[in-house]
Amino acid sequence: MIQREKLFCGFSAFDTDEAYFFYKNVLGLEIEKDDMSVLTITINAGMKIIIYPKQNHVPATYTILNIPVTDIDDAVEELAKKGVSFLKYDMGYIKTDPKGIARNANGPTLAWFTDPSGNILALIQE
Q1: Out of 44-48, 52-56, 94-98, 114-118, which region has the weakest mean confidence (pLDDT)?
Q2: How many domains does the chain have?
Q3: Strand bridging mode 47-53 / 9-13
Q4: I need a surface site. Which of 8, 36, 51, 60 has the fewest CB within 10 A?
Q5: For the chain, how are helix, strand and coil distributed in percent, rounded to 5?
Q6: Residue 108 maps to which CATH number?
């Protein structure tokens, strides 16, 4: 039967060495790499996310990982200093400011960016 307490998700990256550096050193996440170049990020009380290598990787066109922050302005500034570029949107329902932050009165405050493989991530302040 399904072991709900052991659920995990995963996504691909073109270069897991590059992904390892980014997730560990830029984002500061707890991450390990195994003999097959599969990365494991540990989150929320031991839950896992895996990143697996894929030669014909195509970046996700949607947000694959939301990262909660207490102060989005500080988090954007800190990551920008580490070379992260934030995505800019102007789609009517989503409009970002010059920093790349979407400040929505009816929802969370978000800032999107990509990992080295082009997957979309978001900082989120509720």
Answers
A1: 44-48
A2: 1
A3: parallel
A4: 36
A5: 20, 35, 45
A6: 3.10.180.10
